[in-house]
Design a protein that fits this description.
The chain has 18 helices and 20 strands. It has 445 residues and is of the alpha+beta class. α16 links the parallel β19 and β20. The N terminus and C terminus are likely disordered.
C-alpha cells in the first residue's frame, strides 16, 4: 500500500492511492477518477465511480485509476471502525431471557445453599450424628436442584442441532433454539443473500438483424476480456465456448466503457455517456430497454459505425430458490423485509420479484442495525440473513443472525447460525424445528 506522509505531499493530510490498492483511511477525493469496490462496506457488487469531491471509505479497494484524496477521519472515527464498534456493542448485550435467568440463579442458588447449611446445623444442634446431618443437608441440595431439566435441556439442544445440520444449518448455541421460537419476522440482505452477489449477463438485445446473438457476445467478449471491470468479466463469462477474436488498439475509459478495433471496425462498449461521446446516440431505443434501466439493471451498449447494434443487460440475479423460500416464510405468518445499501429502484425491484412487501434501501451497516433495534424495541423478534462485513452489526443485533455459508468470516463469526449450503429454503426447516414451529405444526393437524 502506498501511504504518503507530510514529507511526500505538499498538503498535510493528503494521500495518493493507485490502482489495486486498498484505501487506508476515510477521505474526500481532491483529484483523479477511478471506480472503487465498496462491497466491504455496502455489500453491493458494482464498483462506485469516484471523482473530485466524492467521499471515499477506508478499507475499500481502488480498482482502475489514481486518486488523490484528503483524509477526513482516522482511527476510531472511520466508517470501518464504526462497524466494528457496532458489532462489539451488540455482542455485549444479553437477551432478556438470559438477564432474567441470571437474576433467578443469583437468588435461587445461594438460597438453596443456605437452606442446606441450615438443615445440617439444625440436625447437629439437635444431637444428630454428623453423618446423618450431612446426608440430610445434601438431600435438600439434591432435591432442590432441577436434575431432570438439567438432563433434558442438553438432549433437546443436541437433537435440534443434529437435525438442523442434516439440512445444512449449523447452530452455535442452545439459546438460538429459544430465540427462533419467538420470531415475528425475517430480514434479508439483498446482495449475496437474495441475489447471488456478482454481476452476470442476464439478457442480450440485438438491434441489427444482420447479426445473431452468439456473434454479438463473441465480439463483445473479445474486447471485454482485455478489461478488468466486473461488467467485462460478466460478458466474458457468458462467452465460454464461443470463438473469440484478436483485438487491436484497445482502450478503456474509466467509468464509461471500452473500445477496440476488430476486423477494421472500431467497436465501442459502454454506458449512455460513452455512446454519446462517440456519436452513437441511444435516444431512439425502445421502451423495453429503458425499462431495464428503470428496474435498476446495468445497461451496456455496443456500437460501431455510429450505430448501436446490441444492448447487454447486466444484473446481480436472484437466487433460484428465493421466491419459494419467502413464500413459505410468509405462510408461517412471518413478516418479511429486504434491506440493502443499493438504490431504491433496484431494491424495490428485487423485493417485488420475490414477494417481499417491506423494502429498505440505501442503508449503511449501522442503519441496518438500527432498523432491527427499532423492530425489536416495538416487541418484534427478527431473524437477519446476510453474508457481508456490512451485515455483521445487524446479524449480531437480531434475535437470530443467520450467515450465508459463502459469506465473509466476520459475518459467520457474528451470526448465531450458518446456512452451509446457501439454500434459503433451509430457513423454513430451521424455524419449524423450534418450539413455535412444532406448535404450529400440531395446530395444523
Amino acid at each position: 500500500m502506498s501511504f504518503y506522509t507530510l514529507h511526500d505531499c505538499p498538503i498535510f493530510g493528503v494521500h495518493l492511492n493507485i490502482p489495486g490498492e486498498k484505501v487506508p483511511l476515510d477521505g474526500v477525493v481532491i483529484s483523479g477518477e477511478s471506480e472503487v469496490d465498496e462491497s466491504l462496506i455496502t455489500g453491493e457488487s458494482r464498483p462506485v465511480m469516484k471523482t473530485s469531491g466524492s467521499r471515499i471509505i477506508g478499507g475499500s479497494m481502488n480498482l482502475y485509476g489514481t486518486l488523490i484524496f484528503e483524509v477526513t477521519a482516522t482511527g476510531k472515527e472511520t466508517v470501518l471502525s464504526g462497524i466494528i464498534k457496532a458489532v462489539e456493542d451488540a455482542q455485549n448485550k444479553k437477551p432478556h431471557i438470559q438477564r432474567l435467568a441470571d437474576r433467578i440463579v443469583g437468588v435461587f442458588v445461594p438460597a438453596v445453599l443456605i437452606i442446606s447449611a441450615l438443615t445440617v446445623a439444625f440436625y447437629l444442634l439437635n444431637g444428630a450424628p454428623v453423618q446423618r446431618a450431612l446426608m440430610t443437608g445434601i438431600s435438600v441440595l439434591v432435591i432442590a436442584c432441577p436434575c431432570s431439566l438439567g438432563l433434558a435441556t442438553p438432549l433437546s439442544v443436541l437433537m435440534f442441532t443434529t437435525m438442523a445440520s442434516s439440512k445444512g444449518v449449523l447452530i452455535k448455541g442452545g439459546d438460538v433454539i429459544e430465540n427462533a421460537s419467538r420470531l415475528t419476522g425475517v430480514i434479508f440482505d439483498k446482495t449475496g443473500t437474495i441475489t447471488i452477489g456478482r454481476p452476470v449477463l442476464k439478457e442480450v438485445v440485438v438491434l441489427d438483424n444482420n447479426i445473431n446473438k452468439e456473434h454479438v457476445i463473441s465480439l463483445a467478449a473479445s474486447i471485454e476480456r482485455l478489461s478488468e471491470h466486473s461488467i467485462g468479466h460478466a460478458i466474458t463469462e457468458a462467452a465460454k465456448g464461443l470463438e473469440l477474436f484478436n483485438v487491436s488498439e484497445f482502450r478503456a475509459t474509466t467509468g464509461k466503457g471500452v473500445e477496440g478495433t476488430l476486423d477494421g471496425k472500431r467497436i465501442f462498449i459502454g454506458n449512455r455517456i460513452f455512446m454519446n461521446e462517440n456519436n452513437s446516440g441511444v435516444t431512439s431505443l425502445n421502451e423495453d430497454i429503458l425499462q431495464f434501466e428503470r428496474n435498476g439493471d446495468t445497461v451496456v451498449y455496443m456500437a460501431w459505425d455510429k450505430t448501436v447494434r446490441a444492448v447487454f443487460i447486466i444484473s446481480d440475479i436472484i437466487r433460484s430458490e428465493a421466491l419459494e423460500a419467502v413464500d413459505k416464510l410468509k405462510g408461517m405468518d412471518l413478516e418479511t423485509f429486504i434491506i440493502s445499501g443499493d438504490n431504491k429502484t433496484t431494491t424495490d425491484s428485487i423485493a417485488l420479484a420475490v414477494g417481499i412487501n417491506n423494502a429498505i434501501s440505501e442503508a449503511l451497516p449501522v442503519n441496518k442495525k438500527e432498523v432491527i433495534e427499532d423492530i425489536q424495541n416495538r416487541g418484534g423478534n427478527v431473524l437477519m440473513a446476510g453474508d457481508g462485513i456490512n451485515d455483521a452489526p445487524a446479524l449480531t443485533e437480531a434475535s437470530v443472525g443467520m450467515a450465508m455459508g459463502r459469506g465473509t468470516d466476520i459475518a459467520m463469526e457474528s451470526a448465531d447460525a450458518v446456512l452451509v449450503r446457501n439454500d434459503l429454503k433451509s430457513l423454513e426447516f430451521f424455524i419449524q424445528l423450534s418450539p413455535q414451529g412444532q406448535w404450529q405444526q400440531a395446530l395444523s393437524l
